[in-house]
Every structure is written in C-alpha cells, then in structure tokens.
Design a protein that fits this description.
The chain is α+β, with helices and mostly antiparallel strands. Helices cover 34% and strands 16% of the residues. The strands form 6 sheets. Strands 6-5-4-1-7-8 form a 6-stranded mixed beta sheet, with helices on both faces.
C-alpha cells in the first residue's frame, strides 16, 4: 500500500469497542471483499471491505477476522485468517501478509492460513450460541452483486442452522460514525492531499482546457502524495454539466466565461475526504456568478455552525432549507408567492437546491451513521449546499468536511483550501 502503516493500537481499540457490545457466547465474522473480474484475466483494482479494515487493518483479499470474546482460551478471542503466502506468490503478485507481519499490522497474535478457517470455526461454534453476520444496511446501499460476505452467510446458515443470528451492522453504524483521534488524523491527511491537488489546479485552468485534463492534474498530485487516488468518481462539470448532480463523463472542453464545478477529493489509507469547489474558467467570476457563489457560501458557513452535539439531522436540513429560501429570494430565483404556495414535502427552494446538505464521512465517503440519532462529538460531516440554474448555464456547489466538537465551533478540516472569491481569482491569475 502507498500509505504509511497505521499504528495497530487503533485497530485494537476498535475491536475492543465492538466486542464490548456483543452478546454473551457469540462469534462475529468479517470477510474481505472479492477481487472482481472484468473479462479474460483482467480484474478491477482491489478495494478492501471497510469493516474488516476498521477492525483489523488487514488490507488484502481472501482474509477473514473472527472475534469470540467468551472463547474458552485467550488465544481464541481474536483470530485472523489469511491466504497462505509463498515465495512464488511474492514473485508474481508481490508481498502478502505473513503471520508475523499480520501481527504487526493488526495486533492479533493468533493468525491462521485460510484453509484452516472451517475447522477452527467449527470448534468455536461448539462453544458459541450466536453468530454475528455482517450485512450491508447503509441507507444508500444498493447491492446487486453477491459479495464474499453474502456467500459466507448462505454457507453458514446451511452449516449451523441451530445457532442464533445477530447483526454486526447496527454496532458498527454507531462505532464507525464516531472517530478516534487517529482516524481524524487520517481524514485530515486526505484533506491535505486534496488541498495540494486543488492548489495545483488553479493556475492550470484556462479557456479550452478539457475536463479530463483537469482530472489528470488532480490524480497526479494525489498519487505523488501517497494517496491511491480519488476517494470517489470525480465530478468535473463545466458550464451546464454542473446541473447534472452526478456528472462523471469529464470529457468536455471548458469554455471562456463558464464555471467548473469540481466535486473531487483524495483518499488516504482507505479514509475519504470530500471537497467541492466551483471556479471560473477564465479566472474571474462574472457579477451574477459571484452573486450566486456568495449566496451558496453564506449558506455553507451558517450551516456549518449548526453541526454541534445534540443536533438532529432531519431538523438541521429543515433549518438549512430556510437559509437557502432566504438566499433564493434575494437572488430573484423564487418569490414570496412561491414560498407561500409551496408543497411542504418539496419546498420552493428544492427547485434550485434539490439534494441534502450533509452526510457522515470517514472510511466510506457516505460513511456509517444513524440519521435518527443526535450528532456526537468526533463525528465528521460534509456540508455542501448548492444552487443550480440551468436557464443561466451554471451550477454552484461548495463543500467542506467538518468535525463536530464536544463544545464550541465545529472544526473545518478544509479550512486551508481556498474558497473565497478573491483568493480563488488571485491564485488563478498569479
């Protein structure tokens, strides 16, 4: 991996938190992701399942984590199973975790090769009453491919029908949403790499540059700073492309006078950052573009102040809607009659700002978190209002990553990334 090794104490703490919430006499199993085929002998780049990474730091395929806090013997309480490596594999595929190296990474002393898993699991199940299975219950999830976890669940149900079943996901939703200090440092590192990419980009952008050339500048800077690349598929949307919320073609020429909406960010050590900026192709905003831009910026700044302990996600979005309504009235995009006659289920402001303002962020860009529960200290949220005006040929969105504090002002992890109109114009024309 490109990133520096993470101190295993983080994963030791994460496992301890998870096991403290398990039922008595229960086993929990977590699988790595598959390597997905493309065609012939081609595969997609491997991306680790975030749950096994969160709990162990293992970042390779064909790995399993087994937790059994009430196991008869101490060495059985935490176990990791790895694909057996060899000199042949090292030559053809590169270094894989040895048993010794796995202990350095995970802090788990009991390491088996994968071929021993079924035998060891059988022994553990003779002492256990319940097994925790790891299903994907994220509110945005749409899973159409049978994953390694799903195959394990099918196999387990057939093999051990008399055992009770529990779900690991509700525990992980809460644990992963509140970050340890080490995790905040890793997210900050991803934000810092994103800043380097953005600063590289500003003097590069000129009329007639293509969206994909911009993408190339960013990926260059991300990788040279130990990122694997983009935390998510980049959106580089010039002109009216910005009014397509998930525009990812990135194949158009950027025209003089247009704006470019950049929803782009780096990952680091599997942790995401998530930034949006909107910049002028010609290096200067028009008066109308500046007017709308500053309206979005005011909403972002006021919304950020609301990300405090005890805040409810649903009520927060209602309050942000009120801020946006006021700005749209000031811009002449809606009028008082629009507001008075609005449908409460789709308020007037939704015509120009149709998506949510914030989501949890961490190991996943849209990270784990239970939206019906109050915000807590050390949760990380995006804040990303936007105004989209197809009739005027542009859309503007601005986005930062924010840590909820125990007390006081929320902490902006992207505080050093240029966002004010004047600073962006100065850097683009320097």
């Amino acid at each position: 991996m490109k990133y520096h090794q993470i101190d295993r104490d983080l994963f030791i703490k994460n496992r301890a938190k998870f096991m403290a919430q398990m039922k008595p006499k229960s086993v929990a199993v977590f699988n790595s992701n598959d390597i997905y085929p493309v065609s012939a002998d081609s595969t997609l780049p491997f991306a680790q399942h975030r749950d096994i990474f969160y709990l162990s730091g293992v970042d390779q395929e064909e790995s399993i984590l087994l937790l059994f806090p009430d196991a008869p013997y101490e060495h059985q309480r935490e176990m990791v199973f790895l694909k057996e490596t060899s000199e042949h594999i090292a030559i053809w595929e590169g270094e894989k975790l040895t048993k010794e190296r796995a202990y350095e990474v995970t802090g788990i002393k009991t390491v088996y090769w994968l071929q021993d898993f079924e035998k060891v699991l059988f022994e553990m199940m003779t002492h256990a009453e319940t097994i925790y299975i790891n299903t994907n219950e994220h509110y945005r999830a749409t899973v159409e491919t049978e994953t390694r976890e799903a195959r394990f669940v099918k196999w387990w149900k057939e093999k051990y029908p008399a055992h009770s079943v529990a779900k690991s996901n509700p525990i992980l939703q809460r644990l992963r949403s509140v970050k340890e200090s080490e995790e905040l440092d890793l997210i900050q590192k991803a934000c810092n790499i994103t800043e380097l990419g953005f600063r590289r980009l500003l003097p590069f952008v000129k009329p007639n540059v293509t969206e994909y050339e911009i993408e190339a500048e960013l990926i260059h800077e991300f990788i040279r700073n130990r990122s694997r690349g983009f935390a998510y598929t980049p959106i580089i949307a010039s002109g009216n492309n910005a009014n397509v919320l998930h525009y990812i073609e990135n194949n158009q020429q950027c025209k003089a006078g247009d704006l470019i909406l950049l929803d782009v960010a780096a990952e680091y050590a599997n942790y995401s950052s998530d930034m949006t900026r909107t910049i002028p192709v010609s290096g200067r905003y028009s008066s109308r573009q500046k007017e709308v831009y500053n309206a979005v910026l005011r909403v972002k700044n006021e919304a950020t102040k609301m990300l405090t302990t005890g805040t409810l996600w649903k009520q927060y979005h209602i309050e942000v809607g009120k801020l946006m309504t006021s700005e749209l009235l000031g811009l002449g995009l809606i009028d008082k009659a629009d507001v008075q006659n609005e449908n409460p289920d789709w308020p007037a402001y939704k015509k120009y700002f149709m998506h949510g303002t914030s989501h949890h962020m961490g190991l996943d860009t849209h990270d784990y978190g239970i939206l019906t529960e109050p915000m807590q200290a050390n949760m990380v949220f995006t804040v990303e209002p936007g105004i989209y005006i197809p009739a005027e040929g542009f859309g503007i969105r601005l986005e930062d990553n924010i840590i909820v504090q125990e007390s006081g002002e929320p902490f902006n992890m992207m505080r050093n990334i240029p966002i004010e109109v004047e600073e962006i114009e100065d850097l683009m024309n320097s």
